[in-house]
Amino acid sequence: MTEKQQLDAIRQQIDAVDEEIQERINKRAALAQEVARIKLASGDDALFYRPEREADVLRTVKERNQGPLDGEEMARLFREVMSACLALEKPMSIAFLGPDGTFTQAAALKHFGHSVNTTPFNSIGDVFREIESGSCDYGVVPVENSTEGVISHTLDMFLNSPLVICGEVVLRIHHNLLSPPGYDWKQAEMVYSHQQSLGQCRHWLDQNLPHAERVPYPSNAEAARHLAETGKDVAIASSEAARIYQLDIATHNIEDEPGNTTRFLVIGKQQAAPSSKNKTSLLLSTKNEAGGLHRLLAPLAEQGISMSRIESRPSRRGVWDYVFFVDICGHIDDPEVSAALKILETEAGMCKVLGSYPEAVL
Amino acid sequence: MTEKQQLDAIRQQIDAVDEEIQERINKRAALAQEVARIKLASGDDALFYRPEREADVLRTVKERNQGPLDGEEMARLFREVMSACLALEKPMSIAFLGPDGTFTQAAALKHFGHSVNTTPFNSIGDVFREIESGSCDYGVVPVENSTEGVISHTLDMFLNSPLVICGEVVLRIHHNLLSPPGYDWKQAEMVYSHQQSLGQCRHWLDQNLPHAERVPYPSNAEAARHLAETGKDVAIASSEAARIYQLDIATHNIEDEPGNTTRFLVIGKQQAAPSSKNKTSLLLSTKNEAGGLHRLLAPLAEQGISMSRIESRPSRRGVWDYVFFVDICGHIDDPEVSAALKILETEAGMCKVLGSYPEAVL
């Protein structure tokens, strides 16, 4: 066979596969419509979006993936298919902590796919308010190890908000050294970035730019924008920011720890049902007395529930009181979680469930 | 059956369909790799991206689509599948006329899918230079009825560039009246937007904001940004710009003509092979003498070739000379186009083929 004949033969096979893919995507969409019809008939109309179901679908997709496309890219395509099927009913509107081009936007699109409308807001408080008022269906805000802003503010918002956590998104974060086009980055006298990003690249900066002053900025995107305006010095930010502000990437992946991730929360009005792997976030408070925290955590330990994270915050309600944000493995519908919560509700000064939601599908 | 049993039964069907979709997407990716292997073996390494092939795949997808997903959404999903398969070899880098959030970016992502890197540039000239230098693989620039900048500049660039047109993208354009949050748009004393957008909404503005001054801006995105800074008056721009600059959409779709579209060109170094429906763009020149243009177009008419567009521009090379940008139906490999070109090459002062490329898949 000539090269052309070989290629033509393969392309005919691709065409045949495409027809099968298309037929099945439409079959899937029709089945999704059937789900919606049944729910509408029973008045269950608000729950077309089921985070637990989507998480399980994506987990299955990644587990059974044989390649050659890698599991993450395949999950991305399935996210888009689900996003398109869901938009048949009504495209969702998603609020996120802006500006555009931040990791938070990337997290929102990773989680919901591109058949949704995403809207940036200036503050975490604004994101909460948009959802509370019903202007947006869901929101995405950074919560842990983020480079975009003050994250503890996200936790504080839950103190007074009726919203619940219905999902989490984990992004692998790479940091890049950005410089204005044509500028020799070794001449830089200043390195601009969010405090956390500066910290995450400390070792690299010590080695490569020991004399440059490290200047904290409210967000990496703003540091990049500053560079674009002044035309000198360097910033640590994403490749996305380099594109948006037309900066060169002087060096890729300068983070000291490979595998650096940032975690985001998906917030909304409805609690998610259990998926195959869940987390529950709790807000607990106790008197500031010896052994207080230890006693508080006893019910969890007794039920064999593992804790993935704890963070203490001043409650702002009393001089000596503290609140704790605690993430545990499991769903409030799990018997052991439910048993532990019953005890906590009587023993803790406050015990608020911020949400049970599917563990992030990386 | 209870509602839950019904839903569970449908979800099992969805899971089975998902497995079939996944298996076939990976089969497609493996076939695409096989195509790449054959091409590499024959030294044909630069041509992994075949615009004519992609256009034909998308046309077929839309033609055979039975729903419930509509043809455009299905084509979007296939664009992403092809984008992912192509990125298995090497993710392409696409330059576009920025800033971010313009229609041109939307056009680039519509055409290439999300498995590419897109980079904004400040001018059409910069986009051309990035591709000529090899920094980017392809570029996307507006050419017709755009709201983003001076379009004739795109055509002028071809006078001195070795790049060719290897595709076109057509976007349906909707205009929206944007206002700062909380501002009563009826109080506006100024309406900011690109001259063309102001023109395209003239009737609506006459009816609804007859006393507001219409102020032309270099782009709709910049008009929106201006509004975000001043906090008063209104702008005409896309819903994307409203999201980026956090403005309210006071009124949707205020364009006088529904079905308003903007056309973009995909530019690169390689000529596209024929797809099932093609266009060819020509640059022709003639002496400014009576009947000059008529004689110039005779070879096209004689070969029965239809013209989809003609635009005259001063050539800047001689006092009395004009150049014409002419779009015709067909590919330079078609016998009638090739015959007409042979005659044009001897009769026209200049006859440059700017590119033969697949007609846009809407």
Automatic annotation (TrEMBL), chains A, B:
Residues 281-358 form the ACT domain. It catalyses: chorismate = prephenate; prephenate + H(+) = 3-phenylpyruvate + CO2 + H2O. The keyword Amino-acid biosynthesis applies. Keywords: Amino-acid biosynthesis, Aromatic amino acid biosynthesis, Coiled coil, Cytoplasm, Isomerase, Lyase, Multifunctional enzyme, Phenylalanine biosynthesis. Its EC number is 4.2.1.51, 5.4.99.5. Residues 1-93 form the Chorismate mutase domain. Catalyzes the Claisen rearrangement of chorismate to prephenate and the decarboxylation/dehydration of prephenate to phenylpyruvate. This is Bifunctional chorismate mutase/prephenate dehydratase. It comes from Solemya elarraichensis gill symbiont. The lineage of its organism: Bacteria, Pseudomonadati, Pseudomonadota, Gammaproteobacteria, sulfur-oxidizing symbionts.
